[in-house]
Design a protein that fits this description.
Blueprint (H helix, E strand, L loop, with lengths): L1 E8 L2 H27 L5 H14 L8 H23 L18 E5 L4 E3 L5 E4 L6 E6 L12 E9 L2 E8 L13 E6 L3 E5 L4 E3 L3 H17 L6 H34 L3 E5 L3 H4 L6 H7 L1 H15 L2 E5 L23 E3 L6 E3 H16 L17
Helix pairs in contact: 1-2, 1-3, 2-3, 4-5, 5-8
């Protein structure tokens, strides 16, 4: 499934109607969650049928396309099923009990196969449900002519701080060919360097949030001095949201480009199976860990691994920094110690480089075993 995105250009009146559609979709989703709370024995089909009841009871809810109402009910059921799965798996901590969505800067409404129509040149989209938002011009870098209309399974309208976007979910499998490099790599992520590989190469940590903190602090102070409910407050709130949006886009762009480069250059990529959610409990390092976005980088490595047919292996992080990559002996060291010095064999190496070599060694020993994200049949024939 591919997701292509384009920005929507319209009038303020049209944007207001999109806001009404987004608000109605949120109402349907919250109503379905409330209905489940009152009737715990119901399933996804009962929630889907409840959408018709809401459409009859509320005239403005009937304006939303019927499939868009069903998509909102599916969102509610997704939160409910995730809660059930976490309970069955006995996930430690909070299980993610479904909550009601509140009014936020960002929001979305999702259409399936009806309620929208593309123009013949694929540059305009028209929304034809009861809100009558009308026709919008689309700005994007991807050409939608490569795909048939029947391949467009869903269209999602997303509101962000800088405007409205249309996301097209296309039924198309993405597979790309690459020449085998006969190389393997182990990656140790960190805060001083974004990652250090088993060859000793490092990638600097961009620290996007840290670089924008000065602007964020200044705008946050000005926002706190404005009167609640005033237009001036809304203006500064939007400017603050735009900076946060820019930081998130910088993180994603860096993660995508770095992950693609790593996957294309190797036939096997090994990394630590880190529990980042537990690591951010450290109040001294939480901001830096979140700014590094290790989880996002890992997700893109796994995605590009599937696209390019490259093996990606997540190995347990235990003792990857403590073990000596030369003799295998355990060498205790604190976080402040950046150099690995083995008293048993005399091996001296950078701490992260030593850990990356241990990660690669673990991956080569565990490929094909239960618990990894790779199997022997995933390996290229020439590997």
């Amino acid at each position: 499934m591919l997701v292509l995105e384009a920005k929507l250009e319209g009038t303020n009146e049209q944007y207001g109607r999109l806001d009404e559609a987004i608000r109605t979709a949120r109402f349907v989703r919250n109503s379905c969650v409330r209905y489940w709370m009152d009737n715990r024995d119901i399933g996804r089909y009962e929630l889907s049928a409840y959408c018709a009841v809401l459409a009859k009871e509320f005239e403005w809810a009937n304006k939303l396309n019927s499939m868009a109402r069903q998509a909102s009910a599916e969102r509610a059921w997704s939160a409910i099923s995730r809660f059930y799965d976490n309970c069955k798996k006995k996930v430690p901590g909070k299980k993610g009990y479904p909550k009601f969505k509140k009014e936020q800067t960002h929001g979305s409404v999702e259409y399936k196969t009806t309620g929208w129509k593309l123009s013949s040149d694929r540059r305009y989209i028209t929304f034809s449900d009861g809100f009558e938002a009308g026709t919008f011009k689309m700005w994007g870098t991807r050409d939608l002519h490569f795909y048939q209309i029947k391949q467009f399974k869903r269209v999602r309208v997303v509101r962000r701080a800088d405007g409205y976007y249309a996301q097209f979910c296309i039924d198309q499998e993405r597979l790309e060919k690459r020449e085998p490099t006969l190389k393997t790599i182990g990656i140790d992520v960190g805060l001083k360097h974004f990652y250090t590989d088993s060859d000793g190469q490092t990638v600097p940590n961009p620290r996007h949030l840290r670089k924008s903190e000065k602007s964020l602090r200044r705008l946050q102070r000005r926002l706190s001095k404005t009167e609640k409910g005033s237009k001036n407050r809304a203006k500064f709130r939007n400017r603050l949201a735009r900076i946060h949006l820019k930081v998130s886009r910088q993180r994603k762009d860096f993660a995508v480009k770095t992950a693609r480069c790593v996957v294309q250059s190797n036939d096997l990529v090994a990394y630590e199976d880190l529990k980042v959610r537990n690591m951010v409990r450290n109040r001294h390092l939480a901001k830096s860990i979140s700014d590094a976005a290790w989880t996002q980088f890992r997700e893109w490595v796994e995605y590009f691994g599937k696209v390019f047919g490259v093996v990606t292996v997540a190995v347990p992080p235990h003792y990857t920094s403590q073990n000596c990559s030369n003799c295998g002996k355990v060498v205790k060291k604190t976080l402040s110690r950046s150099t690995h010095t083995c008293p048993h064999c005399g091996h001296i190496q950078d701490r992260d480089h030593n850990a990356a070599r241990n990660i690669l060694e673990k991956a080569l020993r565990t490929v094909g075993h239960t618990g990894t994200r790779a199997s022997c049949r995933d390996l290229p024939l020439s590997w």
